[in-house]
């Protein structure tokens, strides 16, 4: 399917033909649960979404510019828009610009770059090993060709099963938009898109090479009917390029332990989630090892300092992390070292003060 590519500072983004910048920047999302039947109806006709009186929830058809400058968190506007011939030979030169600080974000042939340092020529900064590892071209190439499959030794049930488990936590926000944070090669981004349960899927990663792999896999995906709902972008998990309260759900598969500062990341996720929005994540948990390695708590400080990754030693630690960042209703499922957790942005903040 022909696709248009737009690039920005956050992460690679694919914009299929027919998805204009106005569509990208002004995305419809439901403030409350949107039934799948209504979503299908909306795709058939963009005029309005109607639900039967028996439905016990309200669908709000609100348009909101959800992409934001990662520096000042104000709205981005399209500066230049050039249509592309196809996904194989996309045109570059499309720009987004912050309405407040005037910072501009441009595109390349595969993705948007919406990071703070986007467009810099001379500036560089050292990154933790956990970040640099996945920016490696070989690791990015191997990730979906054997690397991710090895997680099954730690109790991960596999992407398809994990997707079905995550869908249970996300059932109250079906029909809205979803961020697939640290999307890697796009395993879950494609599953979310193919399910047709979400209006938009934002596939974010800091690794340019992971995003290129994600782009290639999306091009090859024959079962994805509507590719225009997927946006690829380079982004920093600690500076998400979205307006506050604009996102219905955030998913992070096998990523939480790779983030240099999980608290900064989850705080950002909490900021962009709307009231009632859902955060779902999977990671490794090493609580069983504490009984056999008494000094593990002290050792992990050294490991984390060197690698930049995080070692979680208890469910309570993860619950405390979510609660400290303003999320409630923590729940989780375990299988060996594998844990899937979910927490929600409160709908009434006053009751949680």
Structural notes for this entry:
Keywords: Chloroplast, Methyltransferase, Plastid, Transferase, Transit peptide. Belongs to the methyltransferase superfamily. The structure is a single chain. The chain is of the alpha/beta class and 353 residues long. It has a domain at 129-345: Vaccinia Virus protein VP39 (Rossmann fold), CATH 3.40.50. The chain is built from 11 helices and 15 strands. The strands form 4 sheets. An 8-stranded mixed beta sheet has the order 8-11-10-9-12-13-15-14, sandwiched between helices. Strand 1 and strand 2 form a beta hairpin. The protein is globular, with a radius of gyration of 20 Å. The N and C termini lie far apart (49 Å).
Order of helices and strands: EEHEHEEEEEHHHEHEHEEHEHHHEE
Q: What form results from the Cα inertia axes?
A: globular
**Which structural class do the helices and strands define?**
alpha/beta
Question: On the 0-100 scale, what is the average pLDDT?
Answer: 79
Question: Which fold name corresponds to the CATH topology of the domain at 129-345?
Answer: Rossmann fold
Helix content range:
25-40%
Tell me the Rg in angstroms.
20 Å
Number of strands: 15
Q: Beta-strand level of the residues, as a percent range? A: 15-25%
CATH-defined superfamily of the domain at 129-345? Vaccinia Virus protein VP39
Quaternary organisation: single chain
The stretches of 5 or more residues where confidence is low (pLDDT under 50) are: 1-20, 26-63, 81-91
The profile of the biggest β sheet is: 8 strands, mixed
**Strands of the biggest beta sheet: in what spatial order?**
8-11-10-9-12-13-15-14
Helix tally equals 11
What is the CATH level 1 assignment of the domain at 129-345? Alpha Beta
Straight-line N-to-C gap: 49 Å
CATH architecture of the domain at 129-345: 3-Layer(aba) Sandwich
Domain Methyltransferase type: 180-280
GO molecular function, one term: S-adenosylmethionine-dependent methyltransferase activity
Main location: plastid
InterPro entries: Methyltransf_11 (IPR013216), SAM-dependent_MTases_sf (IPR029063)
